[in-house]
């Protein structure tokens, strides 16, 4: 069975737009690069041609990847996903029990995760630990340097 990709409506639209761009504009640009590189002569020693063909391979690889994600996408309804607890699309505020340090995270599907922007995947150890939990609960998150306890302070859907 193929892996399901949990996406928000916004991310689904972004991927559809990216696929359209890759199949139209970008594909024509790469074809033009190849055509131009061919005009330089001998293909066996033509680095521009090799580079253009590599770019074409990357393009087709990305097209296949995006098509696969879209074919197996499960769009999450951010209002219904959480019920009364933490779910996909929820913004949560947590406090590390040991230090008292507070952080705010958005729980998203793996295709939308970006820890630098505080967008945490539901497949990550932190995401798995908080899913379904309620305000006031203490959760244990397994980290490389040991278990970290967090208290859930707020949940916004």
What are the low-pLDDT stretches, counting only 5+ consecutive residues below 50? none
Mean pLDDT: 89
How would you sum up the global shape? elongated
Cα separation of the termini: 31 Å
Helix content: 25-40%
- Tell me what portion of residues adopts beta-strand conformation: 15-25%
Indicate the structural class: alpha/beta
Q: What is the alpha-carbon Rg in Å? A: 22 Å
| Main sheet attributes: strand count, strand direction, barrel closure | 5 strands, mixed
The strand line-up of the biggest sheet is 5-4-3-7-6
Number of helices: 3
Per DSSP E runs of 2 or more residues, the count of β-strands stands at 7
Order of helices and strands: EHHEEEEHEE
Summarize the structure.
The protein has 157 residues and is an alpha/beta fold.
Protein topology:
Blueprint: E1 5-7, H1 9-38, H2 47-71, E2 73-75, E3 91-96, E4 102-108, E5 119-121, H3 125-130, E6 138-143, E7 146-156
Parallel strand pairs: 1-2, 4-5
Antiparallel strand pairs: 3-4, 3-7, 6-7
Helix pairs in contact: 1-2
């Amino acid at each position: 069975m193929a892996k399901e990709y949990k996406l928000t409506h916004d991310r689904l639209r972004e991927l559809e737009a990216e696929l359209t761009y890759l199949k139209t504009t970008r594909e024509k640009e790469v074809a033009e690069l190849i055509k131009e590189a061919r005009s330089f002569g001998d293909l066996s020693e033509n680095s521009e041609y090799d580079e253009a063909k590599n770019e074409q391979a990357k393009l087709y690889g990305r097209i296949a990847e995006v098509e696969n994600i879209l074919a197996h996408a499960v769009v999450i309804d951010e209002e219904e996903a959480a019920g009364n607890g933490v779910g996909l699309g929820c913004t949560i505020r947590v406090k590390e029990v040991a230090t008292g340090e507070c952080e705010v995270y958005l729980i998203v599907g793996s295709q939308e995760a970006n820890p630098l922007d505080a967008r945490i995947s539901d497949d990550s150890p932190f995401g798995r630990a908080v899913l379904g939990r309620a305000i006031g609960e203490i959760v244990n998150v397994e980290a490389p340097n040991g278990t970290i306890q967090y208290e859930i302070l707020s949940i916004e859907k």
